[in-house]
Write a structure and sequence with these properties.
- By secondary structure, this protein is mainly α.
- The chain has ten helices and no strands.
- The radius of gyration is 19 Å and the shape is elongated.
Length: 182
């Protein structure tokens, strides 16, 4: 099939379809053509980010996702993808920033808090790790996801032992309704 390079949206749609079929190299070709036609389209930039992510080309993926969120800061999926990529590349501070932004966009989304709990543990911020994990547990329970709620509960116990929190301190942290500032 031959598409006119000037039809950026057709190339974008084909890139999406090919990505869903796991044909990342072919998808990348069409996303690049779409970007030539629409260089500042945040969806095309996110599509490029996603495709580079699937190809394990993390620096390129990060670059495209960053461009996409600069143009559309409310793009939840791009924020979460940035968090995941910063986590993979062990840039935990940046991953926390991305997931905090995602949590602001979707305050009822438990996955963002779960990742914030994990990442704050990597950063040795035990109190924040417990608070975020407790928020995730609560939201998973609210969504009736017993498996993830139990996983969070287990993680809270592990964190309590790791950071040597006494029962009173742990109770206070797990009853917090808001993430700790700073």
């Amino acid at each position: 099939m031959t598409l006119d390079p000037g039809h950026g949206s057709a190339h974008f749609n084909l890139g999406v379809a090919l990505s869903r079929q796991g044909k990342s190299d072919e998808a990348l070709h069409h996303f690049r053509i779409a970007q030539q036609a629409h260089p500042d389209d945040p969806e095309i930039l996110a599509g490029l980010g996603w495709t580079y992510h699937k190809l394990n080309q993390y620096p390129q993926a990060i670059g495209y996702y960053e461009k996409s969120v600069r143009l559309t800061p409310s793009n939840l999926q791009a924020q979460q993808a940035l968090g995941e990529l910063w986590d993979i590349t062990q840039q935990y501070d940046r991953a926390v920033d991305a997931y905090e932004t995602a949590a602001g966009l979707d305050p009822e989304g438990p996955d963002n808090y779960y990742h914030l709990g994990r990442l704050n543990d990597h950063l040795k911020a035990g109190e924040k790790a417990v608070v975020y994990m407790a928020l995730a547990e609560s939201l998973y329970r609210k969504r009736r996801n017993a498996v993830m709620a139990a996983h969070c509960s287990k993680n809270i116990s592990i964190l309590a032992r790791r950071y040597k929190f006494k029962k009173r301190k742990l109770h206070k942290l797990t009853r917090s309704s808001q993430p700790l500032a700073g």
